[in-house]
Amino acid sequence: MSLDRLSLGSFSIYGVRDGFFWLDGGSMFGVVPKVLWQKIYPADDDNRIRLGLNSILVDTGESRILVDTGIGPDLQSRLKDFYSVEREPGLVEDLAEHGFKAEDIDFVINTHLHFDHCGGNTYRNEHGDFVPTFPNAKYVIQKCEWEAGRNPSRRDKPSYVESSFLPLERCGRLRLVDGETEIIPGIRVILAPGHTSCHQCVKIVTQDRILFFLGDMVPTSGHVGLPYIMSYDLFPQETMDNKERFFLQAVAEDWIVAFNHDPHHFFGRIAQKKGKFAFQAL
To answer: Which residues contact 177 (CB under 8 A, 6 or more apart)?
Structure first.
């Protein structure tokens, strides 16, 4: 069983999941040949691989910050079937197993607004309206990502589901930021474009220890190698450049990293061996 809780200085970090889903393996690994990636993630008969819908919860003792919210309960049935979504028990229920209620969350940070990262932002209530799942939280989103979600390109349009983010503004729960921003002491969002033009990562620093939530810049431990970049990325060269930049820091400063879609590992480290980067389990 993978490690799902760790202490980082004075903070407690929990790995939580909204479940699992299945995506095309070739799309997940881009130009990397199947003969290489299938050693790590074996594909089913439809060439799909099973991926986690991972989030992290940071409990500072004073605030609770949730990073990404998975697919959520209200994805259209045809998409649930298409992606073979497995949501048992689901994100809110997984948080409850760690002793937290939806009302306990003070901030939700979305790395970006693709449906598999922010679908759990909202839910449909008994009146049929979409309302915030975490009613007391401010939802932190990059301003340019918000605009991209409201006016997506034709290539990216299927990835955005407006009901998972537009209600946040109507309900007064939205906090737009512009570039690198401190959310609370010790927690910052940092632009890392590539997957989308305004994708952000989350850097957590406490008592000289650092955890870095990679988002879709590096979705799984199998994507640590620099050329391992998804075909879904709008700007793959930027992804590669940012991976190298952050990985060099991660090695030098002994960061713990967190993965958005790894089905086995919430956390790990980045090692450098013979000039290449490699995943190192905790």
So the answer is: 140, 141, 142, 143, 183, 189
